[in-house]
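Researcher: Here's a chain I'd like modeled. Treat it as a single chain, no partners, no ligands.
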Amino acid sequence: ALGYQETVNFSFVEAAWERDFSGNTAPITLANPIASQLSVMRSSLIGGLVNVLTVNRKRQQDRVRAFEIGRCFLRDAAGTPVAGFQQPMRLAGLASGAALPEQWGVAGRNVDFYDVKADVEALFPGEALVFEAASHAALHPGRAARILRNGTVIGHLGELHPRWVQQYELGAAPVVFELELP
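Model: Modeled as a single isolated chain. Structure tokens:
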């Protein structure tokens, strides 16, 4: 109801996405990938959403709101149901372009951190989330926060790092978030 469109992406991603968006230099590599570029398992949903934005930008869509709910894959000796691996369910979202659809009654401006922060807060009605400055491999230094719920870190929120905005030819920096689901 907040204007986001759901996407479904492969759990197999490019190794560069893992390095760029997760800081993961040792991703889970597939023995028999379905395509040479989709050779590792994702540890974050952000790469898939950035790809969705890239495709939309190539089709001259400036205002993009997308989200995905899916599993990520991490190495964990105590992991279950597969020994040696953890498979957390996550929710991630991306907002880019104009804050509101074009209209005559409101001046145009790009979406910002606070717009997406309000969207994340709307997912937890009646609860007080805490946002603290933090660093994240995918996010702009100084424009990123970790999200705490009842004192526990449940995710991150911020502008995409300028390095990735330039490398993936995104134009203006999108704002992304990723949350752990129970």
